Amino acid sequence: MIAAARPIQRPGDAKLLVINRDGRISHGLRSDFGRLLRAGDLIVANDAATMPASLKGTHQPSGEPIEVRLAGRHSVGAYDVQEFSAVVFGAGDFHTPTEFRPAPPNISAGDRLVLGPLLATVEHTLGHPRLIELRFDGTPDSIWAGIARHGRPIQYAYVPMALEVWDVWSPIAGPPVAFEPPSAGFALDWRAVADLRARGVRFATITHAAGISSTGDADLDRRLPLDEPYRIPESTAEAIELALGRGGRIIAIGTTVVRALEDAAGWDGRVQPGDGLATQLIGSATRLRVVDAILSGTHEPGTSHFELLRAFADDATLERASQELEVREYKTHEFGDSVLIEKSKCVPLAGGSDGGSGRPAARAH
Fold first, then answer.
1. Do the Cβ atoms of 202 and 239 come closer than 8 Å?
2. Domain span holding position 274
3. pLDDT tens string 195-243
4. Does 36 share its domain with 86?
5. Taking the mean position of all CA atoms in its chain, how far away is CA 269?
6. Distance between CA atoms of 170 and 15, rounded to whole angstroms?
7. Is residue 130 part of a domain?
8. The pTM is what?
9. Exposed end of the chain (fewer CB within 10 Å): N or C?
10. In this structure, what CATH number is given to the domain that contains residue 199?
11. What is the rounded distance in angstroms from the CA atom of residue 176 to the CA atom of residue 279?
12. Share of the chain above pLDDT 90, in %
């Protein structure tokens, strides 16, 4: 696939590959996405805005330059911003491919980091020399101000120009809690949502702190996605239950929505409202209890995002889809084209990685 190198969220010629529940593959325009839905379906999107989570500065003990990419937090609370997990790089910037970025200086607990107007202390490393827990000095308001003034969006070398924060905010963006954009939501705008509602398709949101997609280190990448906090409004939980009760489908806009809804689902498939922390990895052994289909970006085999798609379709179908994406020159990464995958009617045999028993028969369709 070709990397989408321009930060255009909704190009008119964006493509859409569709895999239905029988494994049949078809192609269209992403702008036609709504025509594939029917009255009674419910779209659930992630309304998280993207923080400028890349902070350049200095490792005070050595005096060497570093880049800190914030990667995790304890909750999506507005004032819970003193402690973060983060991935640290040495000198350089996004123009160098992530896998070729130099390592940071040796980092130890107690080290001080000077990140523009912000000061932080390394609390400890998290099982890898480049993954740390840090604590910012100051009040939540001063920390937010420092991040806003000094931070830049996390980005990668395939986009050659520096991204601005508005490039990575979807039209439905709300609280700034994501570290990288929940970019499946780039396909939506409020006009599209209004059109869907007029056709009887409902719309709801969650807030999920979408994490980083790559660290450039193979060992660290295998740990992705990291634990991610989320919040599910009571109105969204009610909308899901109503849609399922009426035989509608739950359409997740992006992998973060799948992860949050499946984490919040009880043994009976009911989604509990409130705050949570998604810790499970969703993959081929997972039996999905809530989500019926996913609108996602195109993802390459071996990535954590692709692993999640294996919960929706078998490997043979996804391999055929990957071949189609290559032959038809789909674009990948956050500004690329999209796929819509309906959950296969062939459900995994065992309980799955989340231990669930699947959606109750009364709710199946």
1. yes
2. 2-49+162-363
3. 999 999 999 999 999 999 999 999 999 999 999 999 999 999 999 999 9
4. no
5. 22
6. 18
7. yes
8. 0.92
9. C
10. 3.40.1780.10
11. 21
12. 91
